[in-house]
Write a structure and sequence with these properties.
Order of helices and strands: HHHHEEHHHH
Number of domains: 1
Largest sheet: 2 strands, antiparallel
Strand order of the largest sheet: 1-2
Number of helices: 8
Strand content: under 5%
Radius of gyration: 23 Å
Low-confidence stretches: none
Helix content: over 70%
Shape: elongated
């Protein structure tokens, strides 16, 4: 049996980039997926992109190969972090609703998603995860990742100028998307706080602040349904933004 060592080495380097991306980027970063499954998926994707990356690749020496491995880990992690920033908007929207709705008193740590938040934070994160698989958004993300080999050939690393600029823009867009998702509900809850404050000044004997906790919880649960109705379109838009971000890094 004969092996093309150049092609085998190219597939190995591509697999390292794929696995580094899958460990960081949602929805694959969810810890319910075993690391062995991520490694197998990364290897399968690397074999799939082999015809794209193998032509023209020359085998490297031992030292150069180790440096190329480190560079591929960095490239995959940076690309995954860019996707993570895009989808952090949904989780941040849940955190904002928890803050204004008074749910932050019941925070808990989710070891599967590595998220420390209250009910709506974890609920929005799990909903976005389910919608990514149900809508096929993960396929757009994987498609953008496979095209990253055209922008960043194997073993050559990446110029961090453009990714850093994209990270800055992604953080700005994350805060903007957070306000667009949770802003209307937060405004209603803030006005409820203002109304309760005025009521406590007019009639102190009513103890408006004691009434405020169950009232705000009821309003949050009732009005959160409108936010959930918008989540499918939001996740679909974020999936497209993540794919465009991966394609535009180079």
């Amino acid at each position: 049996m004969t092996f093309d060592l150049d092609q085998l080495e190219a597939i190995m380097l591509a697999g390292v980039r794929m696995v580094a991306f899958l460990v960081v980027a949602p929805p694959f970063s969810y810890r319910a997926f075993p690391i062995r499954v991520k490694a197998m998926l990364g290897l399968g994707l690397a074999i799939a992109v082999g015809p794209r990356v193998a032509p023209g690749y020359d085998a490297l020496g031992t030292g150069e190969f180790v440096v190329a491995l480190v560079l591929e880990i960095v490239v995959g992690a940076v690309l995954g972090f860019l996707v993570l920033l895009v989808f952090a908007a949904v989780q941040s929207a849940g955190s904002l609703i928890d803050l204004f709705g008074g749910f932050t008193l019941a925070q808990a740590f989710d070891p599967q998603s590595m998220v420390n938040g209250a009910q709506f934070t974890r609920l929005f994160q799990m909903t976005a995860l389910a919608l990514l698989f149900a809508s096929g958004g993960y396929q757009l993300i994987i498609g953008g990742l496979t095209r990253s080999f055209d922008a960043f050939p194997l073993g050559l690393g990446m110029d961090l100028t453009n990714p850093v600029e994209l990270m800055t823009n992604a953080v700005t867009q994350m805060f903007l998307a957070t306000l667009q998702i949770a802003g209307p509900l937060c405004v209603v809850l803030f006005l409820a706080d203002v109304g309760l404050g005025l009521l406590s000044r007019v009639a102190p004997a009513l103890n408006a602040y004691a009434m405020g906790f169950p009232l705000k919880i009821l309003m949050t649960v009732m009005l959160a349904g409108g936010v959930f109705l918008a989540l499918p379109s939001v996740v679909s838009k974020l999936s497209g933004d993540a794919a465009d971000l991966l394609l535009g890094v180079g």
